[in-house]
Design brief:
The protein is an alpha+beta fold and 89 residues long. The chain is 37% helix and 17% strand. It has a domain of 47 residues.
Length: 89
């Protein structure tokens, strides 16, 4: 009887852990699915955050962006949400 009780407790614990793991992945996209990159900031130049694919747009000049990007082995680009036509807005 003690063995049966122990086995039941272990089976319940394993089932609970499996259920908890499944709950944690419900909102995640399947691996290999492209996710939308996030753009943070509204300045004209952005560091391309390579691991996340996001953009950190807090730089007013390309030189300032490249200075910080070089320290992190990252690249800079113009903010895709800003107009680059040279016209005044």
């Amino acid at each position: 009887m003690k063995t049966l009780t122990t086995f039941t407790a272990i089976a319940t614990l394993v089932a609970g852990v499996s259920f908890a793991q499944a709950q944690g992945t419900m909102g995640s996209p399947p691996s290999g699915t492209p996710t939308q990159s996030q753009t943070v900031g509204n300045s004209p130049f952005c560091i391309n955050m390579s691991s996340s694919g996001g953009l950190n747009c807090k730089y007013t000049s390309m030189a300032a962006c490249e200075k910080d990007a070089k320290q992190q082995n990252l690249n800079c680009s113009p903010n895709p949400n800003k107009s680059t036509t040279g016209s005044r807005q």
